[in-house]
Structures are given as C-alpha cells and as structure tokens.
Amino acid sequence: AVCDHLKEYYSLAYQPEQILVSNGAKQVLIEAMIALLDAGDEVIIPVPCWVSYPEQVKLAGGVPVLIERRMEDDFRLRPERLKEKITPRTKLMILCNPDNPTGFVYPPETVQQIVDIAREYELFLVFDETYHNIVFNKKSTVPLSDVIGDVPAICMKGISKEFPWPGSRCGWMEIYNAD
Q1: CA 137 to chain CA centroid, nearest Å
Q2: Residue 11 and residue 67: Cα distance in Å, rounded?
Q3: Strand 124-128 and strand 153-158: pairing?
Q4: What is the pTM assigned to this prediction?
Q5: Does the pLDDT value for residue 139 go beyond 70?
Q6: How far apart are CA 151 and CA 67, in angstroms?
C-alpha cells in the first residue's frame, strides 16, 4: 500500500523490500538509529530540533553533535557550519524538512549542498519528511528522492501528518542506496 501511495502521489517506484512499515515515524527513527550506529558514532543534528532526535541517538549508543541554527539566519543550516562539525567519528546526519519545530523549509539548493557534503564525507543521511505535506507560505519542499543520487539514506514519513490522521501510529521508512 505504501509503494502504491508513493507511486500515485509522488511518481516514485519502490519495491516492498525498500519500505519498512512500523508503529509510527518515531519507531522508524529509533530502529534506524539502532541499526546504523555503533557505540560512539557521532550524529549531526541541527538545533532547535524535535526533542526525540538526540535521545534516540543516545539510546542507540551514538553521540549527538548539535549544530545551532540561528533565528537571524531563518533557522537555515549553513553548509559551511555542517562541514566544521564533521569528524572521523561522524556516521550520519538527521535533517527534518520542513523542520520541526521551526517550520523552516530548506530550499532545494541547500538540500543539494547537504547531500553533496554527505557524499564527500561518506555520511549516511536520515531525512524526516513527516511534515512534507504541511507547507505554509506557498513554499515547497524538495523530496529527498529528487536529490539523493548515490548517497545512502533513509527517509521517514507517517500517516498521522500525511493524511492527516492525528494519533495514527503508522510510519514508514524509504531506503536509498543502502545494503
């Protein structure tokens, strides 16, 4: 059903083995953290952020590395600041677009720059697109699938916001370029 939905609404062709369905998007995220992180692996998280991101990283044995975004920058993550935070222990980065809690929508060129940095430093990307259908001010989000190329990534979504069915506990993960 998720594959059919993604094909009908987004023209994305997935096979069932590329989709993981779970009890909400939050569960998808913790399962990804547990599967991807080894003890001490660093995860870059732009802040302010959804309160569960750093705690889930810690629960999986990882180390949250927080990048402050500033109101005077419209909460935009500056690619040069991202590069400054990358170390040999950096394994992945979480990006929420549209962002929770700021509401900031990353422009396509910034998403592309982040994907390019992930490629350069061999980072795994975790995109939270839970709010991709809730966009104000007539801005549009760029789906990860449009820019990911060969970078390993997952994208999480859920029906609670997608349809909207508040309180519905069904989420899924789209898997890109991961073995």
Answers
A1: 22
A2: 34
A3: parallel
A4: 0.87
A5: no
A6: 21
